[in-house]
Recover the amino acids of this structure.
């Protein structure tokens, strides 16, 4: 089961490192994005869900709850009492959490339809909400506790 923790923005990696040191399975998915600055394309690392950290656990015990809650940077668990993500949301989120490094996907656009030939999004074209060839990004969404969260993934798409 995956539990969601709301943390201070910019402290996600610190919280994950601290929780992993305490043998708690925690994730803060990040990905590489292409950004243009000064006319030059650069690869930068960005958080997918900026204020959230995910904890994979069979259940919340008092010990786990207070260990996580007393970690510097943690604000609160989502849900009162802390509830795991519904299975449908967990399945959609699992492929993001299982991939260590979200890199640039490549593909093409033909007749307004996106086809990914290599990378993380290959076979997941149905998840793409919109795309921007100019910004070299595809926008996807994931539901967390019933709310849609949109995020961008780097994608170099050629028009055919």
């Amino acid at each position: 089961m995956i539990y969601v923790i709301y943390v201070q923005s910019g402290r996600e990696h610190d919280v994950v490192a601290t929780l992993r040191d305490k043998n708690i399975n925690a994730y803060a998915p990040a990905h590489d994005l292409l950004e243009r600055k000064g006319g030059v394309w650069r690869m930068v690392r960005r958080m997918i869900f900026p204020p959230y950290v995910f904890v994979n656990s069979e259940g919340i015990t008092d010990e786990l709850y207070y260990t996580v809650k007393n970690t510097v940077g943690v604000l609160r668990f989502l849900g009162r009492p802390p509830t795991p993500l519904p299975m449908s949301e967990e399945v959609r989120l699992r492929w993001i959490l299982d991939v260590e490094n979200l890199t640039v996907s490549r593909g093409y656009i033909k007749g307004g339809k996106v086809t990914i030939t290599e990378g993380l999004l290959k076979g997941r074209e149905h998840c793409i909400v919109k795309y921007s060839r100019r910004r070299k990004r595809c926008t996807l969404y994931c539901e967390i506790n019933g709310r849609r969260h949109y995020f961008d993934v780097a994608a170099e798409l050629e028009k055919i």
